Known about the structure:
- With 147 residues, this protein is of the alpha+beta class.
- It has 5 helices and 5 strands.
- The chain has helices spanning 10-23, 32-37, 41-49, 100-114, 129-137, and strands at residues 2-4, 54-60, 66-74, 83-91, 119-122.
- A 5-stranded mixed sheet has the order 1-2-3-4-5, with helices on both faces.
- The chain is globular.
- The mean pLDDT is 95.
Amino acid sequence: MIRLxxxxxxxxxxxxxxxxLQVNPEAFVTTxxxxxxxxxxxxxxxxxxxxNTSCTFGAFNEENQLIGVVxxxxxxxxxxxxxxxxxxxxxxxxxxxxxxxxELIANAIQRAREIELEQLNLGxxxxxxxAKKLYGLMGFKTYGIEK
Length: 147
């Protein structure tokens, strides 16, 4: 099941986020060490999950464990309100290669359409071939390579 996360999901999100930072550190700007040093991380996560400029979708298994997430960020500035950003995409290693990532991205894209975004960006590590392939199949195009 995929649904929007709420502040009640903050602890589950935080646990999965820490796992993501350990399993795929190359895919995130924040390191695991930086994350665990944060003060009141659950309060910050709960705040992010209720923000007007972001929505986070979570995938849950039959045991109600959070096994995948993706966040759609929007811009507050009027000149950039037409843009959105997909960030913090992660699927637990035991649940990969079964279409879950595609479903999460599809939910983010659908929300972007609902709020009438004109442009949707994401970043991916150049060596992450499965993710690059998925994003290409979902309609994303490479427009730059950051070194």
